[in-house]
Structures are given as structure tokens and as C-alpha cells.
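Dear support,

I submitted the protein below through the web form. The confirmation email said the job was done, but the results page showed an empty box. After a refresh the structure appeared. I'm attaching both so you can tell me whether what I see now is the final result or a partial one.
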Amino acid sequence: MKTSCFQQAGRRGKKMGGDKSKGGGAGRVPGVGWVNGHHKENGTETMTLFEMVKMGKSATQAVVDDWIEAYKQDKDSALLGLINFFIQCSGCKGAVSGEMFRHMQNSEIIRKMTEEFDEDSGDYPLTLSGPQWKKFRINFCDFIAVLVRQCQYSIIYDEYMMDTVISLLTGLSDSQVRAFRHTSTLAAMKLMTALVNVALNLRINMDNTQRQYEAERNKVIAKRANDRLELLLQKRKELQENQDEIENMMNAIFKAVFVHRYRDAIAEIRAICIEEIGVWMKLYSDAFLNDSYLKYVGWTMHDKQGEVRLKCLTALQGLFYSRELGSRLELFTSRFKDRIVSMTLDKEYDVAVQAIKLLTFVLQSSDEVLTAEDCESVYHLVYSAHRPIAVSAGEFLFKKLFSHRGPSEEGLPRRGRQSLNGSLIKTTIFFFLESELHEHGAYLVDSLWDCASELLKDWETMISFLLDEPMLGEEALNDRQETALVEIMLCAIRQACEGHPPVGRGTGKRVLTAKERKMQLDDRTRITEIFAVALPLLLAKYCVDIDKVTNLLQIPKFFDLDIYTTGRLEKHLDALLRQIWEVVYKHTENEVLKACSTTYHYLCNEEFTIFNRVDIARSQLLDELLDKFKRLLEDFLQEGEELDEDDAYQVLSTLKKISAFHNAHDLSKWDLFTSIYRLLNTGLQNGDMPEQIVIHAMQCTHYIILWHLAKVSDGSSVKGDTVTLRKQMSAFCLMCQHFISSINTAVKEQAFTILCDLLLIFSHQIVSSGREQLECLIYSPDSSLQAELLNFILDHVFIDQDDDDNSTDGQQEDEASKIEALHKRRNLLAAYCKLIVYNVVEINTGADIFKQYTKYYNDYGDIIKETLSKTRQIDKIQYAKTLILSLQKLFNEMLSEFGFTLDRSSSAFCGIKELARRFSLTFGLDQLKTREAVAMLHKDGIEFAFKVRSPQGDGSPPLNLPFLDILCEFSSKLIQQDKKTVHMYLERFMTFQMALQREDCWLPLISYRNSLQGGGDDDTMSVISGISSRGSSAWSKKSKPTSASKRRLPEEENSCNSSDAVWMNREQSVSTPLMMHSPHLTSTVLRDPKKMRQEQSCTTAFIMPTEQHQQQPLHLQQAAIDYNTQVTWMLAQRQHAEARQHQERVNLHYAKIRNHMQQAIRRGPGLTEEDEEPIVEDVMMSSEAVHEGIDFDTMDIDLPASKNRRERTELKPDYFDPSSNMDDSVRIFNFSKRLKLQ
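What the results page shows now:
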């Protein structure tokens, strides 16, 4: 009887709970044996081979030794255990019995095991996750290797064990079952690897025997031992026979398994084959390292799966790493070199990294294999954003350009201008310049850091190139090369001190080890000691060079400032401060001034003893700048309309310096607001102020307000500062608002950016984190300011590239200028989107932004998408309203462009539908979270579609009806319950004639209704439901058959029976051309029974309130003369069968129903679970007393709980009634009431 191996393991595990020694190597006693694959000791079953390998508690060597002992005693039993081991390792529940093993062929056994396989799950041991199964895979491979190694001297040559195993694995590897194929292929490949090791040992023994034989035979005859020669010949013959037999086994496995499975449909199986053939070629190169086997690796490098391509590259790396093996791969390299080079750009980063490493090994094995074009394709990868690729490319670059030393370079000193490093530094400079990516010096340094850090840290040599005169016969660096050297030097300093990749490469700062931290501190100390002396000299030499000075001024922020004191370097500090002073007075470029300001800010640290010295120098510099500015400003303002260019330049240059320093330093004590505000006001009134003066004046005023706010927030301000700040901020915001209307584009952009920042800073967010005292500073933009900001965005951001008027001198912008202009526009859009995200401006102002999502997706798609996401988190309903508003704006624009003859196949209409589709995706997969928002979106969309009547008359569709085609994109976001409710709301806007239309112009309505009906049988299925909002309750009640679960009051039943039967029977003979669906129910109310005839009491409709009719378009309120006749005709045919059943049930259960209802009414709140549900619908229509004076438009209907109370309480209340079990009529009534109240 076959049982699951896993079940057997569980049962046996209980028996051996107290015996932990069984199953190990100590079990070799006379009672040891194997029965049906179960290990036996002293007649007691313990564990199978699979369980022992899986548990891993016993050493693999001991398990194999036990099996060998059992094999020597009973070959069939032990081999049966080994067969079941492979079967069970595949995850098969069946087991091979002794009878099957003796009388069935392998193919029959495999077919039987396939039938026993568990097809419910696709998992099997090799694919299961977790540490236990990872260990199992290792133990599985080890078991096969140890088994062959222990049997290599006798058992594998008995022509029984290996033949049986190879035959079984071959059959399993050809199975259609993936688990069999995967497991057997892995076993066969590992078996092949073990046989390769055996063959290698045999080859070594044969060579040793041959040498011994030759040595013995070369002896003189007197000393020659003939018997020893015979023994050596016999031994060599046996070894040769064994070698031939092993090779036959390997050939069988290779041809029967590898050749078929290296192109298996499963990538994991292909990867196993390629990985193992790489091992064979490396271990036994004499037999396998030839083109007959290499071709499989070359072919597989084109595999579609990155995992397989990766195995190909790692296999080849093991071959090219050895120069001896690499020299035997010329033909392969010439054939597949181009493919390897192209794989450096593989879409899988891991594959690209290994391809570059492989080319590095190829480069080491031979310099002539790779051409200059091949190397250049790898060189540019040092600038890759993916750091592992860049580091691998850096290593390749270092090996190619820096590792070869000529005879003239031998014996050169290690450091200095004439050292080997000097030559390599020049090579780095030349490569950097030739790459034409000068702004990415940090990327180059980071790529070379792991392999050439010693070279990049040779700052003495770099300084020597910059300061020392060239020696005789030496070519000096030109200006461009010196600029590149300064940049590389700065990047190397930053890399040494910060220890993390540059921005854009890597995920951020990594945690440094203790050794790395110590090295970082040592490098920082060494940098300070070197550059504290050299930096003033470098600044003095390159004082007028903008690029060099900007980079040099960034070096002090990496200093250890304590060394200025401990190393007695104060005089060098004074020299540095003097040079910075000179740079400030000589330069007006923003980047240079910013670097000077940042350097002063770093040096003015109160924690260090040099603070007073630096603070005095800074104060003197600022005093001179501000005195000069005030003096120039007075003269400048007095000139009036006749502005002198020289005076304007002096004011501008001084204002630039003040603005740059005000960014990092508090200049509040100089009270600059009044002076600069006068300057701005004059420029606003005259209109002829130079744009750069206005821009920097606004920037400086912005800094003044921010520093003032910082003081107020910290509590360090005096009384009245808050009021002063409020006045200054309000006046400046008004000033910026005026400048937005300026003629100059640069001024408008600056005013817009600053105004957005101020509105965000002084919004309601300012009182967060316990800063309620700043509430008086909140500044909210009015509607006019919001409109101006939005118009600015629409006019200056959403424009075509060719329409941008920022080109210089009317010339066509080059690519760099276009990128810069796009970057500027992105910043402007981001500034405004932050106002939407932080709820500073109304969310619906984002409609004009969101409608540009698809048109400008390439330029601003990421910004708009993030804004959509953040806005949805603020208010889902308002977010939905904004989305539908943006679509409506696009629709109106399309109508104004194309007129009334709208083509729904046009690119404009399809573009709006695509935008709607993308909008719908932003609601996510959780429909309950966005339920209210999506419903409100549909409500607004329906109202918009029916808002404007057709100019062609009443018989034509509304002008905006095609908008329903766009609204269809959001139908999938409605839950089924809400689709019915929205459908009802749609039909309030429809006339009876609309539902019967089939012309193309009505297709949007048909499509939209179909999307709400969720696969209805006919387009007219909701005609009756639409009428239900306005029509008769006669069909409203009959649409749902009366049963024991939906009972009427006895009095009402009795009054309706005769009239219903007569009405139904009268209409039986009338045929209807359309098969109508059961209509949805609406809430109904009875008129006073005193004023109604008996037959009307159950057939009178609840009419929609007057206010609701007033909200509908005029053409929807037209009364058809034969309206009631049409309704009766259509519904009678749909329900006559149900009416007949209804009459029978009424006559049968009349007395019982009357009794139940009377008891239910008397019980009131004390209803039992059995009696609550039947009166959900009709209790509220029971009598005159219940409904007299009730206004159904303004009240909620309280219903008794349904049977599933827990489900109802878990649903959150929203626009829809929370009970999904409630009668449709009540749910729709509530929703229609809420829509009215909206």
C-alpha cells in the first residue's frame, strides 16, 4: 500500500521521539537495512533518506556510509530507497514499492508517480522558501556529491547502481511535471559534476602510474622489477577501463539530460545546466574546454531571462580569470565578444555588472582582444547612475589606463609631480575632459574610488600641478585642464570626508564601519593640514577665475577647524579670510558670492576658538557693503527717471552681495527692509527699473522676512515685532502681486516664486507644532490673487517649447538652454502645486492643472501625479469634484473648437477619455474608501451631461451628452450597490423617449447605462427604473413578487386582490417587443385612504418632490399624454407570471399573514429576529395614522435591523444607506434625498 512519504515521516517521528541517535553513522549494525526506501535498525523503521537529508541532523558522510553498508547487504532494497529519495525530493506523495521496482520499467514507474503527484499546489522542495528548504537544497547537492565520492572506487563500476540512477534521472528529466524535471535535472547535473571529479582523479592517478611505469622501465635491467612493471601495467589498464566507463556515464548524462534541458522552458532549469557546465570546463578543461561545449554557453547568452544570462557570464568569468584557460578561448572570444560587450548595457543591472567584470578578465588575459571601440563602450559607464555598474566600469578603466607601466616609469617616486601618480593624475584629467561630461566629476571619482583611492588622495601632487612651475621639458597644464583638476580634487576631498556616493547614485548614506570612520577622520585631518596652507595660495592665484574659485571655496567646509588652533595655523586662517574678502569685492557672480557666504557661515561656528577672529572679519565686510549700498541707493533714487548705467551697476552688484550673504547670515540689525522696499516701490511706479535690481531686491526682502519670522518663532524678538512682521509681509505680498503683472518675464517669475513660498510659509501650517502665538501671521490669498497665480501658471508653464520667449538675442536655443528653461518651468509648477497640496488655495483650482496631465506628461507628469495623490489624501470628495471639473473644462474647450458636430473618434475626444482613464486609476483598488467620492463624481458628470439642451430641438440629444462616454471610465470604480443608485439618478434626467433611442448620437447614453448595469441583457433594461422616479407605484409593487419574506398588511392585501387580478388578466393577451428587466423599487407613500378608491390604494405612485423636478432640465418635466397607458402596457407583460403566483400565495396564506402582522405591530420594538425582516418594506405604508403629516423629503426612514446586524454595523455611513440587505426602494429613496440636499 502506497502512503505519502510526508505522512510516513510524521508517524515515524512520533515513535523515535526519545531516540536521537538513530539514522546516523552509528547505525551500522547487523540489523541495518532498507525496506521500500525506509531505513531500518534492529527491525524498526526510522526515517527515509529524504527525511534525513531534509532534517540535516546527521552528517551527510554518515548518511551515505549507512546507505553504502545497506547496499552491500541488499542492493535492491538500498537502491529502492535511493529511487524513492529522488521521487520524494520532487514533492511527490507516492512511493515506489519493491514490486514496482522489480516488474515495471522506469517509464511506467514515472507514469505511476505522476498520477500520485499532488497537482493542487505548484510548490515542491526546490521552490519552497525559508531557511529549512534552502538548507535542504544544499544538503541535496552535497548528498549526491558525497555518494559518488564514497562509491568511486567500486560501487559505481558495478554496472547496476549508476545505470539505474542515470536511467531514472533521465526519465524524470523528460517528464511533463515541472517538479520531476527540475529536481532530476539538478540531481543529474550534480551527479555529472561528481563524476567529473572522479574522472579528474582517475586522470591524475593514470598520469602518476604512467610516470612510475616509465621510471621503472628506464632502469637498468639488473635493477628493473618485472613484477612491478606488470602491476603498474595492470593498474594503468584498470584505471583506463574505469576512465572509459566514467566517460560513458558522463556522455550519457550530457546527451540525455543536458542537451535537452539547457533549453528547457523553465529558466531555473536552464540556469542549472549553464552553471554546472561552467564548473565542468573549469575543473576538467582538457575534456570540456573546447568549442563543442563552449557553444552552449555562447548560445545561451541570448536567453530572454536575466538569471540565465547571469549564469553564462559567471561561468565564463571562472575561465577567463585563469590566463592559462583564457588563452584557449580565442575562437570563442572572437565569435561572442560583441555579444558580451553589448551585455554591458543589459536591462538587468546584475547582468550588466557581471558583463563588465568579464570584460575586465578578458582584458587581463590579453590586451589585444578588445578594440578601442569596445573599451569606449565601457568607459562611459563610469558615469552611470547605478553604482555597481559604475564601480565595475571604473575598475575596467583603471585596469586599462592606469595599470600598465612602461620601462621609463619604473623606479619613479611614489608621490610628487614627477611620480607615477603624477602621470596617472594627468591621464585622469585627459579622460575627464575627453568624456565631455565635466559636470559629473563626482561620478567619475566615485567610480574610481574603490580601486584608485590612493591615487585620488594624492592631494600634494595635485597642488603641485596647480602651484608649481613646470620643470624643464615638462608640458604645463592649460586653463581647461587646471579647471578639471580643481574639480576632481574637490570631488576627491568630498568623497574622502563624506564617504557616500554623490546625489543621484545610491539610496543615501550608508553606515560606516569603525575602520572606515577612523580612516575618514584621518583623511579629514590630513586635508585640513594640507589645504589650510595651500588654499590661500590657490585663491590668490586663481582669484579672477569663476569656476576655480567656486570649487576652491567649497574646500573649507571639510576642514577640522580645531586644527587651526592646535596646529598653530592662525596666520593661514587670516590669509584665507583676506582672500575671501578679495573674492567678494572682485566678483558679482551669484555662485561665487554664494560660495563665499557659505564659507563664512561654516567658519563662524561658536563651538570653535576661531569664531571671534572670523566674526570680526565678517562684520567688517558687511559694514562696508551695507554702508556702500545705502549711499548708492540714496543717489540712485534721487536720479529719478534719468538712471545712470554706472550707478545702476554699482547698486546691482552691491545688492547681489548683500542678498547672497543674507541667505546664510542674519542682517536684521542693519534694518534693510525700509530701504529695499523703497527701491521696489520706485521701480513699480516708474516701470523702468533694471530687471536684475528688482529681482535681487525681491530676493533680499524675502530673506529679511524669513529671518524676522525665525526670530519671532524662537521667542527672541521684542514686543511689537509680530505686528511689524505682519505689516511687512502683507505689504511685500501685495508688492509681489503687482509685479506678477509686470512686462518682464524674469521679474514675473521671481515674484511668483517668492509669493508662493510666502503663502505657503504663512499659511495655516504656521501654527502647527505648538506655535499658536503665530496665528496672527496667517495670510490667506483672496480669490483675485488665486486667479492671478493660476493664470500665471497657464500662461508661462503650459506652453510649447517653441513658444518659450526666453531665448537670448532672438537666437534659437540650444539643447542645454531648453533643458534649463524646462527646469525653470517645472520649479514654477511645483511651487504652485505645493499651494494646492497644503490647502493654501482652493483644491478646485487644480482642475486647470490636472487637465494638462496627458498633454504635458513628459515634462510635468511626475509633478501632477504627485499633486493628484496628495490632493486625494486631503479631501476625496473635493478631489473627485476637481477631476470631473477638469474633464468638463476640456470638453467645453473641445466644443468651442469643433462646434456642435462632435466626432467621438477624434483625437481630442480620445485624449479626454484617456485622461479620464488615468484619473480613474488614481482611486485605487479599495472601492469602499473612495465610494462617496466616486458617486459624487458621477453625480456631477450626469448633471453636466444633461445641463444644456440641444440647439436642434427637443428630439435631439443634449449638447453635452457625449460626456457620458467619458464618464464611463469611472463606472468600474462604483460598487454594485452604488451602480444601481447612480443609475436611478441618471434616469431622473431621462424621458421615456430617450430610453428607446438607438441612433449613433445616443450611443454615449446607452454605453453609460450599460456600464452601470453591469452586463445587462438589454439596453432598455432601465427604462422602467427611470420611470419609477416619476411614475406609478402600481408596477413598483408588482415588480417584486410578494412572498413570505415580503408581506403586506392584511387590510391592504384584501383591498388590492381583486383589482390586481383584473388588471393583470386584462393585459395577458398583449405582447411586448422588448424583454424588460425587473424594475428597481422607489420609496412610496399612500394618499389618504378616505380620498382614494379601493383599487387605487395599491397602485398609486409616490411622486418625486416638486423641488427635485425643478432641478431637472425643462424637457425632462414634460408630461406625456399616454404616459400611464405606456407604463401599464409594458409592465403587465413583464410581470403577469409573477402576478399569478402572487395571487395563489395570497389566497393560501391570508389568515397566517394577518396574524403575524398584527402581532408584529403590537410588539413594536420587541420584534423577534424571525419577524423583523418581513415588514421592512410595507410597515411604513400600513395606515393613515403612521404617515399623516410626514415629509419624506426632509426625514430619514428608520428601519428595523436586518438579520445580519453585525454586517450592517460594520459598514460606515456615507452618501448611501449602509445596509446592503435593505430593500432597494428604501435605499434609493435615501440616496435621492441626499442628492437633493447636496
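Response: this is the final, complete result; the empty box was a page-load delay. The radius of gyration is 44 Å.
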